[in-house]
């Protein structure tokens, strides 16, 4: 079965992965800027305890 022979496909996968991670990914990442953190007040929600019917 040709699917079990990793000879050509492992090299293609490795080369594709290296191309993406070393060349394409840094170029794409430079276009996206991260959002600056926003100082928001911490909102605490009021919770009520759960009443279990069998206790």
Automatic annotation (TrEMBL):
Membrane topology term: Single-pass membrane protein
Entry-linked Pfam families: ATP-synt_8
Entry keyword annotation includes Transmembrane helix: yes
Protein location: Mitochondrion membrane
UniProt keyword list: ATP synthesis, CF(0), Hydrogen ion transport, Ion transport, Membrane, Mitochondrion, Transmembrane, Transmembrane helix, Transport
One cellular-component annotation, GO: mitochondrial membrane
InterPro entries documented for this protein: ATP8_metazoa (IPR001421), ATPase_protein_8 (IPR050635)
UniProt KW DNA-binding keyword: no
Biological process annotations from GO: proton motive force-driven ATP synthesis
Transmembrane segments: 6-24
Example GO molecular function: proton transmembrane transporter activity
Family recorded in the similarity comment: Belongs to the ATPase protein 8 family.
Entry protein name: ATP synthase complex subunit 8
Native species: Todiramphus sanctus vagans
């Amino acid at each position: 079965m040709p699917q079990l022979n990793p000879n050509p496909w492992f090299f293609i996968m490795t080369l594709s992965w290296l191309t993406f991670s070393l060349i394409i990914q840094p170029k794409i990442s430079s276009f996206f800027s991260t959002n600056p953190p926003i100082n928001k007040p911490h909102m605490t929600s009021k919770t009520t305890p759960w009443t279990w019917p069998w206790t």
